[in-house]
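// run 5 | inverse folding | seed 20
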């Protein structure tokens, strides 16, 4: 039996202290990626 990775939300990652993410395309032929950085909340 194969187990799947545990899913986690952006809110849970933020609460855990994650400040940035690198997201890569799942197609191994592709080299697309994007970066998401946490910005300080206003106010």
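// decoded
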């Amino acid at each position: 039996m194969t187990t799947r990775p545990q899913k986690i939300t952006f809110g849970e990652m933020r609460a855990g202290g994650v400040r940035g993410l690198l997201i890569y395309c799942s197609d191994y032929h592709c080299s697309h990626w994007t970066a998401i950085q946490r910005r300080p909340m206003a106010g």
